[in-house]
Design brief:
It contains 11 helices and 18 strands. It is α/β, with parallel strands linked by helices. The protein folds into 2 domains: 2-150 and 310-342, Medium-chain alcohol dehydrogenases, catalytic domain (Quinone Oxidoreductase, Chain A, domain 1); 157-288, NAD(P)-binding Rossmann-like Domain (Rossmann fold, 3-Layer(aba) Sandwich). Strands 3, 7, 8, 9, 10, 17 and 18 form a 7-stranded mixed sheet that branches.
């Protein structure tokens, strides 16, 4: 089978690999669609992120969906031919955090396409993938593989909503409207947000934010005063989802959040400084959010039930042999929102 392998920054290759044997409790999935994530782009453009570096060739990818082609012994909940979205999250189930129900913090996590441990955890950008049966969630007949591949990034935003708490009737600000920011809008809406304002520095992505349900969009590069106007009576928003990782966005969000509001940080970035006096004086709750676990099944259910529509966010599908071009396009925010590989 073919797989997409990163060797170093800008060194992406299509290579042959063995699918591997299907063991008891496992299934083989013919991968049909895979979304390029921000972490994939970091590996491609920079050879890693932060202290995490590529130290050996690694198959990329973790946003995938496909069709089951073989079953291991003991698998009774799935059948050959079933269409599934595959969760890339494989916690050990035994460490202290798994036992606390915090599987996203597993000490022995095997998350597809991760260079954190050595040897690296190989990813899912391959034509055939052997996975545990419990990773696979059935996809409705009316849902395409391309839509199903959105389950993973949607699960990230559903976990962020879990971290925020109830959004029923709340006013929400989303800063940074790439794929995660846009999916945060969908997640907030389906969880009862009354009003959603989205900000970015690019009109193209703000247009997509409006398409998926933002009540108002603001280009803070061109019109920063429009966001600043929400800093009335100490703030206007109950919850902020910060999806850019940009220091200016963090500070702007802290300015317009209400006292005792919840500030959820999704975007990754380097070290930044924050106005601590604002956090203290307004009693702001700042909460991180990292990956997901049980939210993956909910993401598939929401897509299956047509409770939300991820289709507007898909801006390109490239065959596996054009993976390098796909990664180049995916890294250009002027041209793309979510780029996927067709396998």
């Amino acid at each position: 089978m073919k797989s997409i392998v990163i060797h170093a920054a800008k060194d992406l290759r299509i290579e042959e690999a063995e699918a591997g044997a299907v063991e008891p409790g496992q299934v083989e999935v013919a991968i049909e669609a895979g979304g390029i994530c921000g972490s994939d782009l970091h590996y491609y453009n920079h050879g890693g992120f932060g202290t995490v570096r590529i130290r050996e060739p690694m198959i990329l990818g973790h946003e995938v969906a496909g069709r089951i082609t073989a079953l291991g012994s003991g698998v009774s909940t799935l059948a050959v031919g079933d269409r599934v979205a595959v969760s890339p999250s494989r916690p050990c189930g035994h460490c202290r955090y798994c036992q606390l129900g915090q599987q996203n913090h597993c000490l022995n996590m095997r998350f597809y396409g991760s260079a954190m441990p050595m040897p690296h955890i190989q990813g899912a950008f391959r034509q055939r993938l052997v996975a545990e049966s419990w990773q696979c969630h059935k996809v409705a007949t009316h849902v395409s593989a391309n839509q199903a591949a959105f389950a993973e990034p949607l699960a990230v935003t559903l976990h962020a909503v879990n971290r925020a708490g109830s959004l029923l009737g709340k006013r929400v600000l989303v800063t940074g409207c790439g794929p995660i920011g846009a999916l945060s809008i969908l997640a907030a809406r389906v969880h009862g947000a009354r009003e959603i304002v989205a900000t970015d520095v690019m009109d193209g992505v703000l247009k997509k934010a409006a398409e998926v349900g933002a009540d108002r969009t603001i280009n803070v590069a061109a019109n920063p005063e429009q966001l600043a106007a929400y800093n009335v009576d100490k703030g206007s928003f109950d919850v902020v989802f910060e999806a850019s990782g940009n220091e200016r966005a963090v500070r702007a969000g802290l300015d317009v959040i209400k006292p005792r509001g919840v500030f959820v940080q999704l975007g990754l970035g380097g070290d930044i400084s924050i106005p601590q006096n604002v956090v203290v004086a307004k009693e702001i709750e700042m909460r991180g959010t990292f990956r997901f676990h049980e939210e993956f099944g909910l993401a598939v259910d929401l897509i299956n039930q047509k409770r939300l529509d991820v289709s507007p966010l898909l801006t390109g599908i490239y065959p596996i042999d054009e993976a390098v071009q796909a990664f180049e396009i995916a890294g250009d925010r002027n041209k793309s929102m979510k780029v996927q590989i067709g396998f």
